[in-house]
Amino acid sequence: MAFSEKTKKSMNTKPKEPFDFFHDERVRSIFYQLLFAAAVGWFAWYLISNTAQNLEARGMNTGFGFLNVSAGFDSYFKLIPNEPGVGTYGRIFIIGALNTLYVSALAVIASTLLGFFIGVLRLSNNWLVSKVALAYVEIFRNTPLLIQVIFWYIGVFSLLPRVKNSIDLSAGAEIFLLNNRGLYTPWPVPGDLLWMTGLAFIVAIIAVIIFKRWARNRQDRTGQTFPTFILSAALLVLLPGTVYLITGMPLGWDIPKLEGFNFAGGASLPPSFIALLVALSIYHAAHMAETVRAGVLSVSRGQYDAARALGLRGKKVMSLVIIPQAMPAIVPPMISNWMSAVKNSSLAIAIGYPDLVSLFMQTSLNQAGYAVELVGMTMAFYMFISLTISWLLNIYNKRVQLVER
Amino acid sequence: MAIIKTERTAAIAPPLSETTALGWMRKHLFSSVFNSLLTIVTLFIIYITVKELWVWGIADAVWVADNRRGCFDINVDGACWAGVIAWLDSIFYGRYPREELWRINLGLFLLVIWMVPLWLPRVKAKISIGLTTVFLYPFLAGYLFSGGDKSISMQIMVTAAIVCLAANTVHSIIGVLTGRSLPEFLIRLFGKKNAPEKSQRYLLLGILAVSLVAVYMFQMGWNVENVSWTRWGGLFLTLVISGIGIASALPGGILLALGRRSKMPVVRVISTSFIELFRSVPLITVLFMATTMFPLFLPEGFILNKLVQVIIAVCLFNACYLAEIVRGGLQTIPRGQFEAGHTIGLGYWQTISLIILPQALKHMIPNIVGNFIGLLKDTTLVSIIGLFDVLGMLRSISKDLPWLGLHKEPLVFGAMMFFLICFAMSKYSRHLEVKLSTGHKH
């Protein structure tokens, strides 16, 4: 077919539409965006100007200068020393933030371990065990966490015996003691040469990494496996252990002793801390168990059959085929579960554990005012934690996605 | 010689594990030595737990007593349910005037009437029924619960809600009986089946106008006594807060999710940061923000009561969670649906509301139910900032003089109550998930 020169040209170029200012898509998009931004900006300005007016009318102070002012109160549980009447509000913020992080870090670890355990029970081929695990999951997932927290605090840990009749958790050794003032445990007292044991531990870790790399290379070359797990475990225990013994066991334990009406020495955790920790761990373990179960079940049965057909044994099927494929399905919900554990630790306020919200947002707010600054700082703290975790999660997701086809 | 069997071989009996209880037990409980040990240990644990709970909660429990002393006099070790029973009304209704309780019950009954058609198979226009539940029922219920003088806008909304409820009910009855919709039925009733479409429409509009005016006249004379929000409480308040939370968070969540998926960067960034801000902080901090900062945000002299502050906070918070659910639902709709919508000449909002959302909503329902369960449980947090929701009421039992120090039993009762509600709903949402997903397996 023959085209005229003109037709050919018009076939290869885009049809030129006349530019219509009012019906152009880009112009409209910019217009709507400007309108939206203006509306949001106006609303923000309206709130801010109202706030400024209200603050002035009520004679309330503003600014972050109060962080350097000494607070008239103290927290009964703290990880850094503080003197009531001397420590500043800035220090109170740090105490509260550390308390939040402390209890939520322990809750994350405990709930993950317990959750994996329950999840494995849930997958058990023993009907009874699997149903008991199911009951655990359903009971704790379907009741409000706040009721659980209050129940553990008022119903269990406040009803413990007095100091004199402490419950001995270490079966007569009087090392771990539980009473209505909390849990008393020994506390390590590092000696002079302890750093050498630490150094040996780091050396052992590096050695294990190098050794694992060598073992993998060897397997790639010759196809033979090497018992890496036993060897690296032995390395990690024996090397620091030997150094510890040679340097003369430079680690003492401060054991709690009954003096007068209370225990002295050791470390103590208040009942509110233990109640919150137990409640958070149990509640989030239920969620974790479901995550683990869903993750393992997301690996199709064909994978299991294929692995068996290749001649792999039960344990290897799990460790080489099922778990590596289940992990990408487990990790993202697991991390968002951790995040909600950190957020839920704010329920401490109901039982008086001095976390960030109860110490900073409630007590400080009642004492000093500065509502905007205090609420803003508390929210910024939680946002910082959440954004950090979701940033790490994104990195993980990207790495996992590369493996996928 | 051909070896052909002339008679049928008898079928082999199914394995024992599939037929007899003993065989089943052998397969599922005692398949190996380890498994048998596990079963025995688990049975022992169950026995201990159930026995302890039975003795404490039922065998040794006291059901009738005047006060906590009375409980102790009968049995020291058992649960004192008498305290919970004495407070039962307060746990459900808070401090709502006892002679006005019928209003709460009526409100609940109307909600059931309104929503039952959603589960009746022959009723048409379920989306409209669902939308009117979300948008009109709250006004009727709101007036029923709070009472007092009605403003003009409130009168109009109450009128619309009553008309809608009546139309809904008649529509559902007709639907169940004949499978037709209400407009079809009315047109047939007036013998206009073959009339032009225009006159049919005029007829329907006329009926609507007449009923609106009639109901408006009726409701002008209908007044119930004002009950201040400070007397609202118990499970009733919990349901009000979470109900409004889910109903108003749905439109908010849809808008936020659309904003987050928008092609316009300004809209996208603002929506995303709003969603992430509220999703990354605990609800209790948002509630504190509401009670301490909302008074500062508003112009001087304009005061919101605490309940409204809390409801706004819960709505904002939950809208951000729902936005993520809606976004997940929108992602299940293939791009081709958008493009097809555009191709037949629909604009953005028409494509979204007529093509995309009706399909996406179906995928979202289980997650929305899950979100409602979460919200219902989270609503207990309002007791921390001093509202007397169900947990607030449960905890005030231990401060009531006759029942001083009665902590455990109310909490256990509350936990059981929440468990029943939440467990039933989560089972239902799982059932829905299975039912709705069958058509979409590729």
List the helices and strands and how they pair.
The complex is a heterodimer of chains A (405) and B (442).
Chain A: H1 5-12, H2 25-57, H3 89-122, H4 127-141, H5 145-157, E1 167-168, E2 177-179, E3 182-185, E4 187-190, H6 194-222, H7 228-246, E5 251-254, E6 257-259, E7 262-264, E8 267-269, H8 271-298, H9 301-309, H10 314-344, H11 356-368, H12 371-403
Antiparallel strand pairs in A: 1-2, 2-3, 3-8, 4-5, 6-7
Helix pairs in contact in A: 3-4, 3-8, 3-10, 3-11, 4-8, 5-8, 6-7, 8-10, 9-10, 10-12, 11-12
Chain B: H1 16-19, H2 21-28, H3 33-59, H4 68-74, H5 81-86, H6 88-93, H7 101-115, H8 126-135, H9 137-146, H10 152-178, H11 182-189, H12 197-220, H13 234-260, H14 265-279, H15 283-297, H16 306-331, H17 335-343, H18 348-378, H19 390-397, H20 408-437
Helix pairs in contact in B: 7-9, 9-10, 10-12, 13-14, 13-16, 13-18, 13-19, 14-16, 15-16, 16-18, 17-18, 18-20
What does this structure look like?
The complex is a heterodimer of chains A (405) and B (442). Chain A has two domains: 89-185 and 256-403, MetI-like fold (Orthogonal Bundle); 187-254. In chain A, strand 1 and strand 2 (177-179) form a beta hairpin. The longest helix of chain A has 34 residues, at 89-122. A four-stranded antiparallel sheet of chain A has the order 1-2-3-8. A two-stranded antiparallel ribbon of chain A has the order 4-5. A two-stranded antiparallel ribbon of chain A has the order 6-7. Chain A has helices spanning 5-12, 25-57, 89-122, 127-141, 145-157, 194-222, 228-246, 271-298, 301-309, 314-344, 356-368, 371-403; strands at residues 167-168, 177-179, 182-185, 187-190, 251-254, 257-259, 262-264, 267-269. In chain A, 28% of the residues are buried. With 405 residues, chain A is α+β, with helices and mostly antiparallel strands. In chain A, helix 3 (89-122) packs antiparallel against helix 11, helix 5 (145-157) packs across helix 8 (271-298) and helix 8 crosses helix 10. By secondary structure, chain B is an all-alpha fold. Chain B has three domains: 17-59; 65-96 and 231-433, MetI-like (MetI-like fold, Orthogonal Bundle); 98-226, no CATH class. Chain B has helices at 16-19, 21-28, 33-59, 68-74, 81-86, 88-93, 101-115, 126-135, 137-146, 152-178, 182-189, 197-220, 234-260, 265-279, 283-297, 306-331, 335-343, 348-378, 390-397, 408-437. The two termini of chain B are 51 Å apart. Chains A and B meet through helix 2, helix 4, helix 5, helix 10 and helix 11 of A and helix 3, helix 14, helix 15, helix 18 and helix 20 of B.
